[in-house]
Write a structure and sequence with these properties.
Layout lengths: L22 H6 L4 E4 L3 E4 H17 L7 E5 L4 H12 L3 E4 L6 H11 L1 E7 L3 H7 L8 E5 L12 E4 H5 L16 E7 L7 E6 H17 L11 E2 L13 H8 L2 E4 L5 H10 L4 E4 L1 H9 L12 E4 L6 H9 L3 E7 L6 E4 L11 H8 L4 E2 L4 E5 L14 E6 L11 H7 E2 L2 E10 L5 E6 L4 E3 L2 E3 L1 H8 L5 E11 L3 E10 L9 H13 L11 E4 L13 H8 L1
Parallel strand pairs: 1-11, 3-4, 3-5, 4-8, 5-6, 6-7, 10-11, 12-13, 13-14, 25-26
Antiparallel strand pairs: 1-2, 8-9, 14-15, 15-16, 17-18, 18-20, 19-20, 20-21, 22-23, 24-25
C-alpha cells in the first residue's frame, strides 16, 4: 500500500507527481482516441489499463523503485505508456537517443545504470554492438509492431505485448515524494562525454503546467486546446518530446504517434487523422514542405511550434503561405525544456501578417515563473533595451539541479544562482528574448561579433534558397570570416551563382539589416547540410568540412 503523507489531525500534503496528470482524461475524455501510425487505436481508458499492466510487468521482471529502465523506440503509444508507467512506479525512465554513436550509447547506459532495456527491433544491431560491455543490464524486452519475436543474439526476456499479458490490469501506484527522480536522458555537446540531465516528478508536472500557460492560455496564434489533434514531430527521446505528451494527456486530446519519421506517412497522418497541432525543429518543417506529397495535402488547419534552432523567416513565410500557423518557442535540455514562447501581445493581434511574423519567429516571451536575464562575461546584468547583448541566464522551478554524477560540468552550468544557457541574446523593451547565437558558434571577425543565426535568417528569405547555414572560418587578417553554406531549390540550381547571393547579402547590409563587415566573403553551394541527432544543423561537422 502507498505510504501516507499525513498524520492524524494533519492535512494531506499533496504531491505533484506524474500519476495525477493521468487522472483528468479518464473522466474528461475516456473514449478519446490515441493512434499509432495506421496500425493501432486505443482509448484513454485502454491506455490507462496498459500503463498499469506495463508497471506490473516490469515489476515482475524485477524493476523496483529507484531502478532505471532504458527505452529505445520510435514515437509510439508504447513510448507514451512508458512516459507514465515507469516514473509512476518510482523507477527512472531513461529515454535513449538511438541516433548517438555506439560508444556514446554504451557510456550513457552504463552511466545511468540501466537495469531493464525496452528496445525496438530496428535498434537490435545497435544494442548488440554494445551489449557485451554493458555492466548493469539484467533483462531485455523486445518491441515489435506485429508482436512477434525476431532473430537476435541478445537474451530476450519477453516481447512488449507479451510483457503486458498475464499481469493484473491494476497497479496500486504509490504516492511518491514529488522530488523523486522520474526521468533521465543525455545531451551531447561539441566536446566531452554526453551529460546526464534528470528531472523530478515535481519538475515534470510544473513544466507541463508551464506548457499549458505558454501554449493554451494567451490569446495568440497556435493555441493548443482540448479539441485539438496532437502529433509530436520531436522525438520522444528528446527532452520528453518537449513535454507535450504530458500536456496532451492531461487535456485528453486525440493523440497521433507517427513512429519512424517518413515524410509520406507524416503527411498522410496529418490529412487522415486531421492533425491540428505539432512541434518540431525547423528541418522537419523544411522536409515536409519539400516533399512532393505536400502539394496534395491541405495543411491549413495545422499549427506548429518550432524550437531547437532559430526559425528562419523564409521558412516561416513559406509555411504561412501554405496556410500553416507557425511560431517559435525556446527551451533547452537542462530546462525540461520550456523557457519562452513567441506569443503576440494584445496590441499586436491586429497587425498585418508580415509584421506579426517578425515577432512570431523571435525566441519569445518568458512563460510564467521563468526569470531571464542577460549578463556580460563578468556576470554583470545588462539592460533589456534590445541592444545590449550577452549570455542568457535563467531561473525556473523546473531546471535540472545538476548534471547526473558530473559535479565539474555542473559548476559550469550553475554560477551565481543562475543557469547559464550558453546562448548569446538580447531582451528588448517589450520583454521579448532574441537568441542571436550560441557562444560557441558566434563569428568573431576583426574584433566584432557576427551572428550566424542572423545570416541564416536573412539568406533564408532569398527565393532561391532551400536551406542554409553560416559558420566562421579562419582568416589571417580578421581572425574569422563568415562562410555561407547553401542548398538551392531545384528550379534555381542553374540560374543562381555565388555572386548573386553576395549581392543579395550586400543589399541587406545597405538596408541596415546587417553590418557591412558581416557580409560573407565565401558562399558554397552543397547538396545537403549535416544534421545532429535531434535534427539541428551540425555546425561542428560543417567546421570540420569547410573550416
Amino acid at each position: 500500500m502507498a505510504e501516507r503523507l499525513y498524520a492524524p489531525g494533519e492535512c494531506y500534503r499533496y504531491q505533484l507527481i506524474i500519476k495525477h496528470l493521468l487522472e483528468t482524461p479518464l473522466f474528461f475524455a475516456p473514449d478519446q482516441e490515441i493512434v499509432y501510425r495506421d496500425r493501432v487505436r486505443l482509448t484513454y481508458r485502454k491506455l490507462n489499463e496498459r500503463i498499469h499492466r506495463l508497471a506490473n510487468g516490469l515489476a515482475k521482471l524485477g524493476v523496483k523503485p529507484g531502478d532505471t529502465v532504458c527505452v529505445f523506440d520510435y514515437d509510439s503509444h508504447r513510448y507514451l505508456e512508458c512516459f507514465f508507467a515507469i516514473p509512476m512506479m518510482g523507477a527512472v525512465l531513461h529515454t535513449q537517443n538511438w541516433r548517438l554513436s555506439p560508444e556514446q550509447i554504451l557510456y550513457t547506459m552504463n552511466h545511468a545504470e540501466d537495469k531493464v532495456v525496452l528496445v525496438h527491433e530496428d535498434f537490435l544491431p545497435l544494442l548488440e554492438s554494445v551489449y557485451p560491455q554493458l555492466t548493469t543490464v539484467e533483462k531485455i524486452v523486445l518491441i515489435t509492431d506485429d508482436g512477434r519475436k525476431t532473430g537476435t543474439r541478445l537474451p530476450i526476456a519477453l516481447e512488449y505485448e507479451e510483457l503486458l499479458q498475464g499481469v493484473p490490469g491494476f497497479c496500486d501506484f504509490p504516492d511518491l515524494d514529488e522530488n523523486t527522480r522520474g526521468t533521465l536522458f543525455y545531451t551531447t555537446g561539441t566536446t566531452g562525454l554526453p551529460k546526464g540531465v534528470h528531472f523530478s516528478h515535481r519538475q515534470l508536472v510544473l513544466n507541463a503546467q508551464a506548457q499549458l500557460n505558454g501554449a493554451a492560455v494567451y490569446e495568440s496564434i497556435g493555441r493548443f486546446r482540448s479539441n485539438d489533434v496532437y502529433m509530436p514531430l520531436t522525438p520522444m527521446f528528446h527532452v520528453h518530446a518537449w513535454g507535450f505528451p504530458y500536456v496532451a494527456t492531461m487535456l485528453g486530446v486525440k493523440q497521433v504517434y507517427p513512429g519512424k519519421y517518413e515524410a509520406p506517412m507524416l503527411l498522410k497522418l496529418i490529412a487522415t487523422e486531421k492533425v491540428t497541432f505539432s512541434h518540431c525543429v525547423p528541418t522537419i518543417v523544411h522536409m515536409l514542405l519539400s516533399s512532393p506529397v505536400a502539394a496534395t495535402v491541405d495543411l491549413s488547419r495545422w499549427r506548429v511550434t518550432v524550437g531547437g534552432a532559430r526559425l528562419p523567416k523564409g521558412l516561416a513565410r513559406e509555411a504561412m503561405n501554405r496556410g500553416i500557423e507557425i511560431y517559435a518557442g525556446y527551451g533547452m535540455s537542462e530546462a525540461c525544456p520550456l523557457i519562452s514562447v513567441s506569443n503576440l501581445k494584445p496590441s499586436m493581434l491586429g497587425w498585418g501578417k508580415e509584421k506579426q511574423l517578425d515577432r512570431l519567429i523571435m525566441t519569445g516571451l518568458p512563460v510564467p515563473f521563468v526569470y531571464a536575464r542577460i549578463v556580460d562575461a563578468s556576470g554583470k546584468h545588462l539592460p533589456h533595451d534590445g541592444v545590449a547583448t550577452g549570455e542568457l541566464v535563467i531561473r525556473t522551478p523546473w531546471l535540472t539541479e545538476d548534471y547526473y554524477k558530473d559535479p565539474e560540468r555542473t559548476a559550469e552550468l550553475w554560477r551565481d544562482g543562475w543557469l547559464h544557457t550558453g546562448d548569446v541574446a538580447y531582451i528588448d523593451p517589450e520583454g521579448y528574448i532574441q537568441i542571436t547565437d550560441r557562444l560557441k558558434d558566434v563569428i568573431k571577425t576583426g574584433g566584432e561579433w557576427v551572428s550566424s543565426l542572423d545570416l541564416e535568417n536573412l539568406i533564408s528569405q532569398h527565393p532561391a534558397v532551400s536551406e542554409a547555414a553560416a559558420i566562421g572560418v579562419p582568416d589571417k587578417k580578421w581572425g574569422e570570416r563568415p562562410l555561407l553554406v547553401i542548398v538551392l531549390k531545384p528550379d534555381f540550381r542553374e540560374r543562381v551563382n555565388q555572386e548573386d547571393v553576395r549581392v543579395y547579402m550586400a543589399k541587406c547590409a545597405e538596408e541596415g539589416r546587417l553590418p557591412k563587415y558581416a557580409v560573407p566573403d565565401k558562399i558554397l553551394f552543397v547538396e545537403g547540410i549535416p544534421k545532429t541527432s535531434v535534427g539541428k544543423i551540425d555546425k561542428v561537422e560543417l567546421r570540420k568540412q569547410f573550416g
